[in-house]
Write a structure and sequence with these properties.
heterodimer, A: alpha/beta, Rossmann fold, five-stranded parallel β-sheet, 11 helices, 9 strands, B: mainly beta, Alpha-Beta Plaits, SH3 type barrels
Chain lengths: ~300, ~140
């Protein structure tokens, strides 16, 4: 594997390997502190994303490497009209690995066709965000201890939420995983994804009622209704408060259920949920750094 | 109407009536110096009406483009006035610069010099998706 463009670039075995490395990093951080000494990662963020960028940068620094790059298109040559292909050809001379976020879908694939160093997709528009999915998978493994025999509730924006789509595609490869899709009718999961589940014989249900679905869930994956994915402000305002998780609603959940959220949260999870042991979203954000460390090591071929 | 038999060349047969000009343009047959005949609305037992293109030269045609436009087309190879091969077409696995991605969020909408590439993701239903953004192409949609 040279690049990570989509989560489906990784086999189940490769994901297991990354998770094992991340677990080892968490247990023995010192062992890894000089692994990437003398190596540089370029973070090319054509669209701002503080959280993802900082997580990548922290990951590279904790491996003893260095980071260079930009955090918005205005401060890059893209604002002068340079193509993605030209940008990465040049950056390949300066860095050993490139992490890219771009508003256009498929930009990291174009980058991987032109760069001479590994490319990591850190999000391309509403399309793929594979390192978020790896973060989610590491969190599920660490919190639940397994990937099979799980009932996963997905709540909120299931239509535009790319993290949800990738998580479904990654988790449907495991045994006896069931999905409960909880969303308003306007934000249901896309037809193609439903078809993939049907073709693979994976059990799933669709509902608009979060409270009713709650007792059967092992995992509740909450998502934000994102303003930037809407063409119409009125639709955004009407739907953004549809599904809010409160501690009252959580009372009906299993004691060992876990709540995940890719963050940032706006108001879809009340602050009083944060203190519940079942709230795993801040531990999830922490896991993001460790799985990215594991990924950087793998793509750079560092043992 | 009489059109001469060809000696050495190709006959593209069983073209859906009305599609022959599109194929003429895609295969860039206007660049050939030889005789090219476009015959429209020929009576056909199987199809009712069909189009035929005759090319009086031994050229290689892009069967991927033909297969994408219409996998029902047959390519007859003629040598010394005789039919020596009848090629049946299939939907190609990949087509480049044939379908145009309509997704305004796709990188192909801004990146200069990028080829439009689509891959066949569902053979049974003839569904092609953009390799960059995975948007579905409407079957038979062309640049």
């Amino acid at each position: 594997m040279k690049n990570l463009i989509s989560i489906l670039d990784l086999s189940v075995e490769e994901i297991d390997e990354l998770i094992a490395t991340a677990d080892d990093i968490i247990a023995n951080p010192k062992k890894y502190s000089e692994k990437c000494h003398g190596q540089k990662m370029a973070t090319l963020f054509f669209e701002p994303s503080t959280r993802t960028r900082l997580s990548f940068e922290a990951a590279m620094y904790e491996l003893g490497g260095n980071v260079l790059g930009f955090s918005e298109a205005n401060s890059s040559s893209a604002s002068k009209g340079e193509s993605v292909a030209d940008t990465v050809k040049v950056v390949s001379y300066y860095a050993d690995i490139i992490t890219m976020r771009h508003p256009k879908e498929g930009a990291p694939l174009v980058a991987s066709m032109n760069a001479s160093v590994p490319i990591i997709n850190a999000g391309d528009g509403g399309h793929n965000h594979p390192t978020q999915t790896l973060t989610d998978l590491l969190t599920i493994k660490r919190e639940m201890g397994r990937f099979d025999n799980l009932t996963i509730g997905l709540c909120g924006d299931l239509k535009f939420g790319r993290t949800v789509h990738s998580l479904v595609q990654a988790m449907m490869r495991y045994n006896n995983v069931k999905f409960v899709m909880i969303s308003p009718d306007e934000l249901k999961i896309p037809e193609y994804l439903k078809q993939e589940l049907i073709d693979a014989g994976v059990e799933f249900a669709e509902t608009t009622d979060l409270e009713k679905a709650m007792p059967e869930l092992d995992i509740l994956y909450m998502t934000r209704v994102q303003r930037e994915r809407f063409f119409n402000e009125a639709d955004y305002i009407r739907l953004k408060d549809s599904y809010i998780l409160t501690s009252e609603k959580l009372a009906a959940a299993k004691p060992d259920m876990r709540v995940l959220h890719p963050l940032p949260r706006v108001n879809e999870i009340s602050l009083d949920v944060d203190d519940d042991i079942r709230a795993a979203y801040f531990r999830q954000a922490c896991n993001g750094k460790f799985i990215r460390m594991a990924l950087i090591l793998k793509l750079l071929g560092v043992e | 109407m009489h059109i001469d038999e060809i000696k050495n060349g190709l006959v593209l047969d069983h073209i859906k009536a009305g599609k022959s000009m599109k194929i003429y343009n895609y295969l860039e047959l206007d660049k050939l110096d030889c005789v090219v005949a476009i015959i429209k609305n020929v009576n056909s037992k199987k199809m009712g009406k069909k189009d035929i293109i005759k090319i009086d030269a031994e050229i290689e045609v892009d069967v991927d483009i033909l297969g994408y436009i219409d996998p029902g087309i047959t390519v007859d190879v003629i040598k010394d006035g005789k039919l020596v091969e009848k090629r049946h077409l299939e939907l190609p696995e990949k087509v480049s610069n044939v379908i145009h991605c309509k997704n305004p969020r796709c990188i192909t909408s801004t990146e200069q010099g990028l080829q439009q590439m689509f891959k066949l993701t569902d053979k049974a239903n003839g569904i092609y998706r953009c390799i960059y953004c995975e948007s579905k192409a409407k079957h038979g949609s062309l640049l």
